[in-house]
Known about the structure:
Strand order of the largest sheet: 10-9-8-5-4-3-12-11
Number of strands: 27
Bound molecules: NADP nicotinamide-adenine-dinucleotide phosphate, iron/sulfur cluster
Number of domains: 3
CATH superfamily of the largest domain: Aldolase class I
CATH class of the largest domain: Alpha Beta
CATH architecture of the largest domain: Alpha-Beta Barrel
Largest sheet: 8 strands, parallel
Number of helices: 21
Shape: globular
Distance between the termini: 33 Å
Mean pLDDT: 95
Low-confidence stretches: none
CATH topology of the largest domain: TIM Barrel
Amino acid sequence: MSPSSAHKLYPILLSPLRVGAHTLRNRVIMGSMHTRLEHESEPDKRQRAFYGARAKGGAALIITGGFSPNEAGRLEPGGPTLMAGDDLAPHRTVVDEVHKHGAKILMQILHSGRYAKHDNIVGVSSIRSPINPRVPRPMTNEEIDATIDDFVKTAVLASQAGYDGVEIMGSEGYLINQFTAPRTNDRTDRWGGSVENRNRFSVEIVRRIRATLGPDFLVMYRISAIDLVERGSTADEIDQLALAVQAAGADIFNTGIGWHEAPVPTIAFSVPRAAFSFAVRRLRKVVSIPIVASNRINMPDVAENLLADGACDFVSMARPMLADPDFVLKAQEGRPEDINTCIACNQACLDFIFSDRTATCLVNPRACRETEFDEAPRQPKRIAVIGSGPAGLAVTSTAAARGHQVTLLEEHDKLGGQIHLARRVPGKTEFNEMLRYFIRQIERAKVDVRFGVRATADDFAPGAYDRIVIATGILPRKPDIEGIDHPSVVSYLDVLLGRVAVGKRVAIIGTGGIGYDVAEFLTHVDHGENAVDHFLNEYGIDTSITAPGGLKAAQPASSPRQVTLFQRRQSRPGERLGVSTGWILRNRLRGRGVTAIGGAVYEKIDDHGLHYVVDGDRKVFAADNIVICAGQLPNTALADELKRRGLEATCIGGAERAEELDALRAIQQGVRLAYDL
Ligand code: NAP
Ligand code: SF4
């Protein structure tokens, strides 16, 4: 498709719009995200490469991760600040690189308030957050005034560093949001009580930044469009805040959805695409400056539909920009099928940050690691890849794109391997995008794909290939339990692939990612077209936001089956699921009556069900079916055969090591190997 037809496909998304004194070249904003790049060696070089790639890829406006305006505002000890005395040079490096590629850049100013993970923690009131053990010290009047001053000083420094403006972080439950919501503000002075008093902090920050820096400096205010917490703001209160901030001089609203402590998932894969657009659509009718939609917008058609529908003026994408820096460019060139789509797994972005590691991306291991990959062309080689799961697809597509001549041998009649399991799990349909992306790259590079080939050592004459890569994946582990061959016992493969009919009472052996995925699969009821409504009802989201925080009684879905998960370890079942997604899965399954038993000793399986001992008590779980999700073993049959013949091969993914295998490791290994060839 030509670029001009692409503009017909995404006419609004690709069109410019004026904001304050600036014109943004299209409607795509790269939202703020903490990456922890600033903690790495050579932070300037790495941040320049990271942000520069996104600017070059067509984003109109980039917003940095949050910088706090003073010590108390830091998220953690050593967290980024921009205060008097801080070096502006690293900022200028990033800003210049972004400007060089025609994009604008704002610095986010974030005061963490009661979310701070350090001892100098302050808040509006002395009310602790449920996700932080530290109790905040209420700020004095003088401290509040000084903090407003600090926001202004930081904005001045940002202007001196060359930023086009700032984003004032007023959502997600950080300090500014703590002022606006009754949940966290029980003050009786001029900063609490009436809506006007609670809004004063936000209004003063915006008013004074505008007065100090004049009309050319972009001021974006990130407003909480729905708090999703008890005693959060109502629609009426949000509207009053928006109008006051607009009158104080903001140029544009970005929107946040839910506080960090909200009991509702807001960005994970289980949230349907654009599910929260109702909140920004509602607010857009109230304000007269442009407004940005965010959360689970990951493809250009989703964005275009929101814009065309009048929900927003811009879309913000943070994770999709990690996944593909060239998102906008590909939309402009009319090839959305080449976009490496964010699958909302959080595995390598949020979960890494929560465990103090620099973010990257499951589908794009080069994200935040741009400087580690040598893009210089290599001497083309003949490569054989056996197996087309995530590891095989990653090495094949990357090596072929780098000019190598790749032959891909696949035993089955379609590409994808374990991706076909993941994409069947309710809420994980984004894996379809992963598959589409890889297949498209392999077709584009004209890889020689041979289906239906169960490769043996005879397929590899000495010297036929410069490198043989084994990506044959895993074999499910069959635990040594008496009666394991009983007809009621089925493998997770058979269940997820729909090869067996599963009864009403089900025991699942194994509580890893796959055990939980199978539990989700077996207890889910498909709501087809009504997925968004169903999601909103399941979590009790009041789309009119008349209830404080936009929360009403939740209506957990009922399960068509009674499911119990078992594990041998004494630890809390499901504790090794993703940090930012595990709680969602555990809560959801609990709501459907799924139970989990730890410390089980399996005795046998027979017509009565699963016999086990727990805490010394002998028990029987009467099950129609027992699903085995007991981990995997590497499938090394071909690798062993080649070794016996003296042929060298490199194993990646599950074929290399089955423990703790996931798509993250498989794709990382595949991509890194392709760069090393
Ligand atoms: P896993 O996480 O290693 O879990 C295997 C489970 O099987 C454990 O609960 C283990 O618990 C049990 N087990 C192991 N050996 C057993 C034996 N001999 N007899 C009975 N039970 C046994 O493996 P997985 O669930 O297959 O997942 C594979 C990988 O994919 C993991 O790295 C996982 O994180 C990843 N994955 C991730 C997600 C996600 O949502 N992020 C989803 C799917 C898969 P006990 O030893 O305590 O019994
Ligand atoms: Fe998206 Fe997952 Fe990549 Fe994060 S790690 S950006 S959620 S695909």
